[in-house]
Amino acid sequence: MDFFPTDLLQEIFIRLPCKDVVVSKCVCTSWYDLLSDQSFTANYAANSPITTVFAEQSHLTSNPPSVLQFAPNGDLIATRINPKIPGKNRYIGREINSTLYLAGTGNGLLFLMLRTALLNLVTEKIYFFNPFYKECVQVAENSLVCPEWTYGYKYMIDYVPKIKSYKIVRFTDPGNEKPSQAKIFAVGIDQDWRILDDSLVSSPRWSNRVSFKGFCHWVSVDNDGVVSIHTLDLSEEKFTPGIRLPRELTRISYYENRVTGLRVFNDRLSLVDRSDYDDRITIWTMEEYGIVDSWSKIVVQLSWLPFDMRKSADLYHAFTILPNGNVVISLKDSVELVSVCTEKKQATKFRVPDNVRNRSTLYGTAFAPRFYPLDEDRIRRQWHNRKTPSAWLSTVSIALSVLVLALYVKRFLDFVYGLFQ
Q1: With CB atoms counted within 10 Å of each terminal CB, which end of the chain scores lower, N or C?
Q2: Residue 1 predicted with pLDDT over 50
Q3: pTM given for the model
Q4: Is the alpha carbon torsion for 219, 326, 357, 69 positive or negative?
């Protein structure tokens, strides 16, 4: 099949669902090399007419995630993901006193966190998982003691081009009006977690955090109702002044039950604003990252939805935005997905595949599929080098233990031999 031009093959493959691309890699060597090249993954993410969304719940033990792809003809294609961490029979839900969580997604990878509790000690291990290659590599480990492990927490992970590696940030919210805290870890570089010391780590009423283009962003509302977006530069590990909000969102009532959260839609930083006092969902999208004047607004009126799905606006989740401009939303405690055309003011229900119907609520995250493998040897070597001192100590202690045991066995055998002499 080498007589097909490469450009033509690329145009065909970017129109296929992820699982069909993976199957196509098994046809011949030339197709495998073409589809495993990083340039094809970049081309698929930028030019594929298929919108890919990672559908999940943060707790993965009872609800394995799926990759949902919205085709231009209206079809919804689901690929079930069953993460497996390194080790024997370590599928999700099979570890004693352990729970597997989703810490984030990025670069076609799932960032998994295995949290294991033993008495007053909690261990959190971070893994990178490639869902289409079934690769899983441990990259970090964090040990917590009481009361730290009881605090609320949030992981942020993103790729930093400057160091050609990933940085992991763990935000902690102790509650009881205590200031928030943050620790940071550079994969393959740091030996231990470092405290991120900055007053902006503490932000009252902070919403969800998203990582985008090497920055961490989150929305906060102070006691005066002033809304702001905080920004952490992962490369410099410094907080920047942040991004200015649209004028309509600079101030809200402190007592208003309003949900304002950041998302990433079509590779653009977006802000979703909804309230139980309103009958609409407003999505603000920054067309040019960092340019304040580039904010554009999409309004979804709940009256456009099917009658049986008309609920309070704060119960809806903005799932994704399709290339044709339609907004896909999901309803809390439901697996229904609805595509809303804002121009025609119409809504159409998607037929959700049976393999995702066991969820209570569908949450969507923009996802760019990755068809090339992890640089597994490099990541494992970095993790091994990070643990080299403790690894050597562990090896020496085991060797000494074996030596002492051998001496005791020898003495015992000499004693038994003496009894029969």
Answers
A1: C
A2: yes
A3: 0.77
A4: negative
